[in-house]
User: Fold this.
Amino acid sequence: MKILGDTLNLKECPQVNSILMSDPKYYTVSYAINNHMIDEFGELNQVNPMKALQEWLSLKRCFEKIGYPVKTIPPVSGLPDLVFSANQSFPLPDGRVVLSKMRSEERAPEVKVFKSWYEGQGINEFIEMESYFESMGDILWHPGSMLLWGGHGFRTEEAALEELFNKTNIPIIPLKLINESFYHLDTCFSLLDSKTLAYYPGAFEEETNAFLEKWFERTIILEEEEALKNFAGNCYCPDGKNVLLHPGSTKFDIKLLKLGFKIHHIRTGEFIKGGGSVFCMKLPLFL
Ligand code: ARG
Assistant:
């Protein structure tokens, strides 16, 4: 594992000020680009649009309740996965925005939609990527620090992490993903606060797991069932205190409560049918 940059003298990262979500009007499952999108007979999952809207609205309300204003991107017909707003762009604290280069043809046009949205907000400095890079599906801020954890293997290429480091100078710790059910880093790796990581070891090589155990003061090991079926690893803790997650991961809930986190259960079952949950459905903004 080749760490990119100096991870010992880290600068502070500014606070997240708001959240960007993408209107679920056209969300559905009309193709399968990850193995969560099909059922046990190999058919595409059926989404209930009313239920999806209710779930999306409860997530939005929860962010507002804990103090994060939510901005929304209008829906675009024919781009069902636009709703997973973590994946198209990666905003930097200095106001620039890295644009994704999506792996699949189906999702590639989503990036332009996000670019226009930023332009409408007066943001005009973009970083384009040559290698495949799926933004906050695979690149995650270490809470409070100018340090990134970068997943690669299925969507984001290892070369993209090097490219990102060369273009931004922000240190990155690359983590190789080896289990296709956990195709994005955010499906199996959740930074709860600067000392605490919740992760699913079955998504990584042995040496990565050993590295993570050494690096973090506290780790929570996610059970296979809770990580795979319930997307426990896709929870989101924006402030080191409130954890938003899909209900049903009782073992994880107990561990969170013991450590003093406050749990907010938000149903995301309709979005799990597309391969994502809470973390995938939002983008933290510094705006
Ligand atoms: N269907 C989408 C895809 O496969 C789901 C993306 C979920 N997002 C995430 N950050 N894991 O790309």
